[in-house]
Amino acid sequence: MKRSLILFQLLFLCSFAFAQPDRWQQRVKYTMDVNVDVQTNRFTGKQKLDYTNNSPDTLTKVFFHLYWNAFQPNSMMDNRSRELGKISLDKSRSGREQLDWDQRVRDRILNLKPDEIGYQKVISLKMNGVAQSTKEEETILTVKLSKPILPKTTVTFDLEFEAQIPLQIRRSGRDNPGTGVRYSISQWYPKICEYDYEGWHPTPYIAREFYGVWGDYDVRINIDKTYILGGTGYLQNPGEIGYGYEPAGAKVNRPAGNRLIWHFVAPNVHDFMWAADPQFKHLTRIIRNGPVIHVLYRNKNNELRQDTLWNVLADGAVTAFPFIEKSFGKYPYNQYSFIHGGDGGMEYPMATLIAGPGLGTAFHEWMHSWYQGMLGTNESLYAWMDEGFTNWATGEIEEYYYNRQLEKYPGDQALHQYIEKQKKRLPLNHEDAYNSYFALVKSGLQEPLTTHADHFNTNYAYVIAAYSMGEIFLEQLGYIVSDDIRNKILLEYYRLWRFKHPNANDFMRVAEKVSGLQLDWYKEYWINTTKTIDYGIDSLWEVNGKTLIRLRMLGKMPMPIDVMLTLKDGSRELAYIPQYLMFGEKPPEDHALPRTVFESWKWTNPTYTFEIAHKLTDLKVVEIDPSQRMADVNRKNNKLELNW
Ligand SMILES: [Zn+2]
Predict the structure, then answer these.
(1) Residue 10: pLDDT band by 50, 70, 90 thresholds?
(2) Secondary structure (DSSP) of 107-147
(3) Ligand 1 ion: nearby residues, β-carbon < 5 Å
């Protein structure tokens, strides 16, 4: 009795300590059969969708995405791109005029011929066997339900659809001239929009960012026998398919006829992508205690160098994986595929489409498995939490990977030279992100990160906000709470919020709990406004053998301040001034470095003076934030060198 009471108490304590946030999620189960005609580049499909309404709401309508309808002349995507093409940005380094449109899209959609456009048509749609009335408005299909879907109930939709694979314009399509890959098939089926605590998200396909419902996919693709496929999901019939999917040495029994049905199953994902090409080469790597890595690529011109680079990518994934899991949390699937296709890099569950074997892109897209795949923030609203966090992680992984390579091959001079060159270009300390952000501030085109991804005035402001400012958000968070604690925050964020679509507040609450510091102000300034940081050294003077240092807050965004003092004898010490709004202080980051914690700086005061126990003439250098993790837009006034 007593024992069970203790056990009960223990259980209670544990459940309290590991309390998971309680946010309901809708659920889907897709079963799809598609039949592809590689002559006409069209396919027909059947979809059975079991949709579970876990919300407390009664749903009277539902929405579906029909993404490929964007690839038609005068679509919203086409209009938007051509309008952005009228905006001239500063001249590029080459001196040529830079237009704001996406170079991949430009005005290409306007010029598509009828057999080159993309379309998705829903031929019939039934709910629980009853035909429903639908209204197609370009990339969104509205379904007014004959009967509402009650809370905590499941309905079954049956759809018949047909589609034409567009010439590759953006992300999906056929016959990309760059990669030469025949089919990059993403955003390809009628996909139910996400309904969450903010309601429906029928976001039209204009440029970017995806948001979906987690669930299980069972997909059969019937296609010409010569095509080799890769994509989301585990292949269920490798013995019938072969092409490197069969277990080593196993015999392949292909059915008669000139077609194959590829059967894939993907559990707990929010999308399904596939790609196909008759010339795909297929590499695999097995990671111990990790997923199987598939690499599918097309070596268009049969260059030996290409084969080498794709093999380096496959090996790179194996090398980086333990670091990735340790830093960002467990990868829950048994497979990941790097697939040649698309136009740059685009993330999908369990797979990516990449235009080439670049390791930086490969790591970036894989990291999206965490921030886009498993955490799945609504990217339209919080693109910085996906692209920015992913970019930050990419920099960390690249640094780890290149250092490991140097350790692994200590005597290889050519490798060392190559890696040193790579590392120079690496976003070490995430310097590229800071420089891009500073340039955006200077341009006057900056908009708050709260702007919807499709509604930024320029592509330029969106890209820097989402990728660079999101990356800086994490690097700068390390400056505020310490790098160690920032790393703990990321792991805890993943543990608490995976498969739950967290928003910005959810991240901030984790950050506050783990650090013990108030951080609401950081979000208010960095995310909600375009205010900038600028601190400077104002003046120094000596009173009774002690030096007084006055700092000035010149920007509008408050921050805690690290000041490094280097003395004439070469010794260094850190003066740390917490920001009042934090109601606390970060722990020391370098225990070998003496640190004095001063009273916090109330941001309403434009200056702050502190006293150090050294004579003025003993000082050599005074520097605000030598780590350069604080995004101070004017670093010229951060450092003072004294020449006595
Ligand atoms: Zn990305």
Answers:
(1) very low
(2) TTGGG--TTTS-EEEEEEEEETTEE-EEEEETTEEEEEEEE
(3) 387
Ligand 1 center from residue 467 Cα (angstroms): 8
Residue 265, both tokens: 């199953």
- CA dist 206 and 213 (Å) reads 20
- State the burial class of residue 443 (Cβ atoms within 10 Å of its Cβ: 0-12, 13-18, 19+): middle
| Among 451, 380, 433, CA closest to 198 | 380
For strands 215-224 and 199-200, give the pairing. Answer: unpaired
For residue 479, report the distance from its CA to the centre of ligand 1, in Å.
24
Distance from residue 170's CA to the centre of ligand 1 (Å): 14
Find the 146 Cα to ligand 1 centroid distance in Å. Answer: 40
Query: Taking a C-beta distance cutoff of 8 angstroms, is the pair 48, 176 a contact?
Result: no
Contacts of 492 (CB under 8 A, 6+ apart): 510, 513, 514
State in Å: Cα 147 to ligand 1 middle: 40
Interval between CA 390 and ligand 1 midpoint (Å): 6
Task: Convert the pLDDT of each residue in 446-505 to its tens digit.
Answer: 999 999 999 999 999 999 999 999 999 999 999 999 999 999 999 999 999 999 999 999
- Cβ contact 489:510 at 8 Å: yes
Q: How far is CA 399 from CA 427, 464, 629, in A?
A: 9, 22, 17
Q: What is the pLDDT of residues 496-537, one digit of tens each?
A: 999 999 999 999 999 999 999 999 999 999 999 999 999 999
Q: How many helices (H) and strands (E) does the chain have?
A: 14, 33
The CA-to-CA distance between both ends of the chain, in Å, stands at: 78
Phi, psi (rounded to 5 degrees) for 36 = -105, 130
**Cα 388 to middle of ligand 1, angstroms:** 8
Report the separation in Å between the CA atom of 333 and the middle of ligand 1, taken as the mean of its atom positions: 20
Q: Are 64 and 122 in contact (CB under 8 A)?
A: yes
Distance 433 CA to ligand 1 centre (A): 14
For 464-557, where are the alpha helices, taking DSSP H only?
Answer: 470-481, 483-497, 504-515, 520-526
Place of tokens 């069209």: 42
Q: What's at 520, amino acid-wise?
A: D
Span 329-356, mean pLDDT?
97
Alpha-carbon gap, residue 1 to 350, rounded angstroms = 48
Model confidence at 562: pLDDT above 70: yes
Check residue 68 and report its DSSP letter: G
> How far, in Å, is the centroid of ligand 1 from the Cα of 219?
26
| Cross-strand bridge partners of residue 120 | 163
Residue 347 Cα, ligand 1 centroid: separation in angstroms?
7
What pLDDT, in 10s, does the model give residues 393-435? 999 999 999 999 989 888 888 888 887 877 776 555 689 999 9
Q: What are phi and psi of 525, to 5 degrees?
A: -80, -50
The rounded distance, in Å, linking the Cα atoms of 381 and 448 is 11
DSSP per residue over 405-468, as a string? HHHH-TT-HHHHHHHHHHHHHS-GGGHHHHHHHHHHHHHT----TTS-GGG-S-HHHHHIIIII
Ligand 1 centroid to Cα of residue 386, in Å, is 7
Phi-psi region of 610 (alpha: psi -120 to 50; beta: other; left: phi over 0): beta
Question: 365, 352 in Cβ contact below 8 A?
Answer: yes
Ligand 1 centroid distance, CA of 519 (Å): 26
The structure tokens 């997909």 sit at 219
CB atoms within 10 A of CB 113: 8
From ligand 1's centre to the CA of 553, what distance in Å? 35
pTM above 0.90, yes or no: yes
